[in-house]
Amino acid sequence: MKKASLAVLFVMVCQLALVFPVSALSVSAQYACLMDAVTGRVLFEKNAHERHSMASTTKIMTALVALEACSLDDIVTVRANASGTEGSSIYLAVGEQMRLEDMLYGLMLHSGNDAAIAIAEHVSGNVEAFAQRMTEKAREIGAKDTQFQNPNGLDAEGHYTTAYDLALITRYALRNEAFARIVATKKTSIPWPGKDWDRTLVNHNKLLGTYPGCIGVKTGFTKKTGRCLVSAAEREGWRVIAVTLNAPNDWQDHTNMLNYAYDTYQPQPLVLPDMVIKTLPVKYGSEGQVQLYPDGEFHVLVDQQEDISRYRVEYDVPYKAQAPIQSGQALGLMRIYYGDELCCELKLVSRSDIAYVEPPPPTFWERVADFLALALRFDQDTA
Question: Going from the N-terminus, what domains does the chain have, and what CATH number goes with each?
Answer without folding.
Answer: 1-20+267-383 (2.60.410.10), 21-264 (3.40.710.10)
